Amino acid sequence: MACGGSPPGTGPGIIVITIQPGSANLFLGQTQQFRAIVIGTSNTSVNWSVNGVAGGNATVGSISIGGLYTAPSILPASGTVSVRAVSAADNQTSASVSVTLKDDVVVNVSPASANVPAAGAQVFMATVTATGSPSTAVTWSVNGIAGGNATVGTIIASGSSGATYTAPTVPPSPATVTVTATSVADTTKTGSASVTITCTTDSISPASANVSLGQTQNFAASLCATGGAAIFWDVNGIAGGNATVGTIAANPGAGGSTAVYTAPADLPSSTLVTIHATAGSVTASANVTVTSSVTVSISPPSATVSVTQRGTFAANVTNTPDAAVTWSVNGILNGSPSVGEICVAASNPCVSPNGPASGAVDYVAPASVPPTNPVTLVATSKADPSRTGSAIVTIATQTGPVVVTVSPLYAFVAPSGGQSSTAQFFADVANTGNTNVMWSVQSAVAGEGCGGAACGSVDANGLYTAPATAPSPNAISVLATSAADPTKSASATVAITNGPTIEAVLPSSVMAGAVESFPFEVQGVNFVAGSGSAASAILLNGAARATTCGTATSCATVLNPADVESAATFSIQVQNPGSPGALSNPVPFVIVPFDVSVDTIGLTQAQPAAASEDIVVVDPTTAAASSPINVDFIGFLTSGNNCGVQGSPLTVTRPASGSAVVSLCVHGNGLDPTFTYAFTGPSGGDIGVVASGITGLFSNMIELDLTISSATLPGVRTLFITTLNNDHAVATGMLEVK
To answer: What is the residue range of 150's domain?
Structure first.
């Protein structure tokens, strides 16, 4: 080890470092050459540092590899630093000296005083003098506030020594402030100037302005005699203004000297208003002209509406917060029955708007085409009655009543959970040019089921969103109501699949007059399997039937002839056990009138197509049976009850004269000799058929004895089978007559 000054005595192998000079006193930015004397080693090199920083830095000063120390330009927190030399031969050996840093900084601000009008400006210069090379930068403040503020004025530096002071818009109290420049080199050294803020006039800036409806304008008041008094603003003498002439509100944090005026949404009776700023007995004013750039347009700009039908029109009003308009038809306020009427949207019967209103309205065309056609709809702005928009409406004769259809008619929708479950519905509107509809949801069972949000929701595009839980009964109507004629609507039925849901019934329809009982099956989801009170039950018009549910997706009962003796439509539901038990969606079961007549549609080359032919097809009463009635094979029946099975058609030859009996054996599913069997042919039939049972052969096999005469027409014949319940089966190409 070693220290500055004369070296002590040394022994062999001991390194000693001495720094000369042993101390220093320097002004900021000055330099001092230090020399390190190293003995005890041939390597006399050293490494220099300042306050432990190799080579120093801008804060504590820097030192070169040759020992030239340069003091910093800014006085550090400690006015003393340590310069150290460390032996390159042994980094455990070093010596240090202290350097005392000082300054004689003087800051002068010019001009030393100034009078500045309110909101005026003054440039100040700061001069920093000192020994050495300290930083000449300064920071600026007003009344001790860095950069100043809106009350005492602000000051912004320009360059390293200049700054611009801007006086406040209202003289502070007291009206004299101090602008100070503080040395960056030594923050204890400052220079200052005195500024007196003067007021030459009482005024508001700007003195006049044009402001559009609903728009804003900033104002600043300069009042000489405020003495720190609060400033109050008014419009036309109304404190703060009002909705008619516009409002004005002081900005926070500016002593009330600035304010924002907001023009009214509607043009006032006088478009020239006066803004006042008052402090004590002092008042200044500014004029505001309220202007309008309102535009009005109607969408759609033209339309065709059939007599008595509706069209929806919307007024688009811009450049004002007030979008309200009044409507007229051919100059008549809200129209009249002869030219058509303006109605509150979706009101039925028509309700005329009660004064100006925003949004869409309905136009209801007159009952007959008016003498002046088309008619003109005009929307007049409430904000500026001089601004209007118009639409042309052509009244057309109606081709027929409005008809609304919705598709799909039925939907099975999962419940909504963490993610919405939806179904898209579509509406078609015929016989009107206005194909818009209004969508809504409600329970499909009057007085029962869901209401409100429990039914789900549907948007304006027909997108239905399911509720989280199925209602009971599990049936929701999605309705589309014609915008042209609100008395016309159509609906679809939705079932939510976390409740009991019927998806199909077998049969779905039968003909009245069945003489035998038949199985009836309901297919769906979320039934309770089993039988009795612990299982689901099928309800026929609300009355429970003896039911067996083989699975959670299928339940069955038996319908008797008394159930279907006359035409009707029954409501089918499934009710799960419980108190009360959850009900499924109702599904219709149709019983059509008994009618076994046969209609013939005759087509010719001259008339190859037929129109307006209603074809009613009912399900067989065996629809829920495991296998329908059919024919598997046919053959000739010979003596001894021998059935010669052959491929169809079987060929029989008519006799040359008289008649002959041919016996056939017919096998199939569910065949019975009590059924009626007939072959196709001319009206009244030309082949007699007698059915009987066959013993000793296969079950479900019957005998058909055919009487064929010489008058029987040649050709391929189809076998028709009619059960006692008037169910029909057909076996094509069974017989050929030659």
So the answer is: 106-198
Joined together, the tokens standing for residue 668 give: 């199939």
Beta bridge partners of 19: 36
CA torsion 615→621→624→626, rounded to 10°? -110
Provide the CATH number for the domain around residue 243: 2.60.40.1080
Q: How many angstroms separate the CA atoms of 371 and 595, rounded?
A: 53
532 domain residue, yes or no: yes
pTM over the 0.85 mark:
no
Q: What is the spatial order of strands in the sheet that 360-364 belongs to?
A: 295-299, 310-318, 360-364, 340-344, 335-336
Which of 592, 615, 645 is a domain's end point?
A: 592
Distance from C-alpha of 511 to C-alpha of 238, rounded to nearest angstrom: 84
How far is the C-alpha of 706 from the C-alpha of 691, rounded, in Å?
A: 9
Dihedral, 686, 691, 696, 698 alpha carbons, nearest 10: 80
Q: How confident is the model at residue 343 (pLDDT cuts 50, 70, 90)?
A: very high
Q: How far apart are CA 410 and CA 476, in angstroms?
A: 10
- Check which CATH number belongs to the domain holding 335 and give it: 2.60.40.10
- In 10 A of CB 554, how many CB atoms? 17
Residues 89, 119: one domain? no
Tens of pLDDT, residue by residue over 252-281, are 866 678 899 999 999 999 999 999 999 887
Say if 609 falls within a structural domain.
no
| Closest by CA position to 340, among listed 382, 388, 376 | 376
Token pair, residue 636, equals 């000739």
Same domain, 310 and 348: yes
Mean pLDDT taken over the chain: 91
CB of 309 closer than 8 Å to CB of 403: no
In a domain? residue 39: yes
Same domain, 634 and 733: yes
